[in-house]
Design brief:
This protein has four helices and two strands. By secondary structure, it is mainly α. It has one domain. The chain has a two-stranded antiparallel ribbon. The mean pLDDT is 88.
């Protein structure tokens, strides 16, 4: 899937919190599943192989996803704290 994104937009895919959230949710719920699925027009595949080959989602990458989510939370926390301290638009 990542190969279909133009090269100049791939940075945005990795910088977007939405893509990390989707990666984490799908991988944590289905990434270690060994059930077989029927893929139309192809042979049957195991769910974890389907996720890895078609979407690039690897179950072993989950610790990195957790660290990135914690990083996003801390970034937004510090931006909020800085903004609330220095940006005051109230008129008295």
């Amino acid at each position: 899937m990542l190969q279909q994104i133009p090269i100049w937009w791939r940075w945005f895919y990795w910088a977007s919190p939405n893509s990390w959230t989707l990666y984490g949710l799908v991988t944590s719920q289905l990434g270690d599943e060994n059930a077989e699925v029927e893929v139309p027009g192809a042979e049957n595949m195991v769910v974890k192989e389907l996720l890895k080959e078609n979407f690039g989602y690897d179950y072993n990458f989950l610790p990195v996803v957790v660290v990135v989510h914690i990083g996003w939370v801390l970034l937004f926390l510090f931006v909020f704290a800085y903004s609330i301290k220095f940006l005051n638009f109230q008129k008295r």
